[in-house]
Structures are given as C-alpha cells and as structure tokens.
Amino acid sequence: MATRTEHTSLFAYEEVAKILCMYPQNLRQWVSSRKFPHLKIAANVRFTRDRIDQYIHSTLVEPTESIISSRLLKLEDYSKEEKYA
Prior knowledge:
This protein is mainly alpha-helical. 54% of the residues lie in helices and 12% in strands. The termini are far apart. 5% of the residues are buried.
C-alpha cells in the first residue's frame, strides 16, 4: 500500500473508518446500502476528504435554545445573589 501524502485526496475504507472511529465492516455496510458518499473506481471504493468532512459536520447536534436560556438565567441569578451578599 502506498504511503499517503498531503496532496492525496482519496481515502480507503480503513482510513475513513479510523477517522470516524468505527469498524471498517460497518462502513462497508453503509456503502453497500448507499448511506455514505463514495467513489467507485474500477473495483475500488474510495472516499474524498470533502465528503468525509461534510458527513462529520452533518452529525453535529446543536443545543436547544431552552437549555441555553435556562443556563444563562441561572448565571444571572447567581450574579445577583453575589451582589447582595
């Protein structure tokens, strides 16, 4: 297997699985069921860094507004208590 250089933009199963912290077998299942974007070059499946990054960003879970607001309110109440103590 060739060593990776900074300019190489295609990744194999094992490399992508390592990036995503998953087993290569699970990634193969995702590819076979078309749940993960990939390139098919002859008999080889490869992945682009751009699509890997897009997948990672698509899994981001944002906090709900109510949690943020309630924590901010608690901080404001805490600050008021310190002023009067």
